[in-house]
Amino acid sequence: MNRYLKLLFAIIFTACILAYSNLFQFHGYCNSENLNSENSTSSEFSKNLKLPQKVALENSLEICRGDNLKQCIPPLMKYKQLYRTSKPNNLVACVIEKTFSTFLTAIMCFLHDQKSFRESNRTLESDIYGERLCKDKNEFTELKKIEKWQKMSIFAVVRNPVDRFVSGFTDKCLREKVWRKYKSRCASCRTNLTCFVDKMYDRMMKFAKNPYKGIDFDDSHFFPQSW
C-alpha cells in the first residue's frame, strides 16, 4: 500500500511538472533524452503501471484513516518558526519558505522601516533574501521573543501544496540545478522525481517520529506548510 501511494504521487507530480514546464515554455527540462539515464524515470513504466483501483480512486482523507494512518505524514508538528514584524503597524508575518517568503520578507521590511528602505534605493523586487535590508532587525524565530505580540495581528500566506511542490522542484532541481553546486540538495536525486518523492517522504516520516535539529535546504522548501 505504501509503495503504491508513493508511486501514485510521483506520477501525479510528473504530470503537473510537465504541464508547468509547457505553460512557461521550459522546453528541454523534462525531456527524457536530456536526463541522465540513471536519474531519469522511465516513461514506459509510467504508462504501463496499473495501480489497484482502490488506491486510484481513494482521496487523501480516505487513505489516511484506520490502519493506513501510520503511513501518512502528520498534519501538525513542532517545526522551525520564522517571523517578520512591523511594530508601527502591529503586524507579525509567519513566513513559510517557498510560499511568497522572499517578497513577504521585503514587504515586512518596508513596513518596519519605510524611511531606511526608501533611502537605500531598494524595491520589493530587489530586496533579495541574501542581501535583505532588515536582516536580524525585525526577524524572530520564536513568537515569545516578540514584545507584546499578543496585541499584534498575526498572519501567514499559504499556497496550494501541489503547486508549492511543483514550483519548488521545477525551480530548484530542474531550472537552477542547485545540486550541481551542493550535491546533497534535491535529496541527491538531481532531476529524478521518483527518487526525490521517495526520499522526501522518508525524511518527513523520520522527522515526525524523532524531530532532528539538522533541518536542511530541502526540508525548508518541501516540508508541510502546516508544520
From TrEMBL:
InterPro entries in the record: Chst-1-like, Sulfotransferase
Keyword Signal found: yes
One GO cellular component term: membrane
Signal peptide bounds: 1-19
Coiled-coil ranges per UniProt: none
Keywords of this entry: Signal
Keyword Lipid metabolism: no
GO BP annotation list: chondroitin sulfate proteoglycan biosynthetic process; positive regulation of response to oxidative stress
GO MF, any single term: chondroitin 4-sulfotransferase activity
Protein name per its UniProtKB record: Carbohydrate sulfotransferase
Source species: Caenorhabditis nigoni
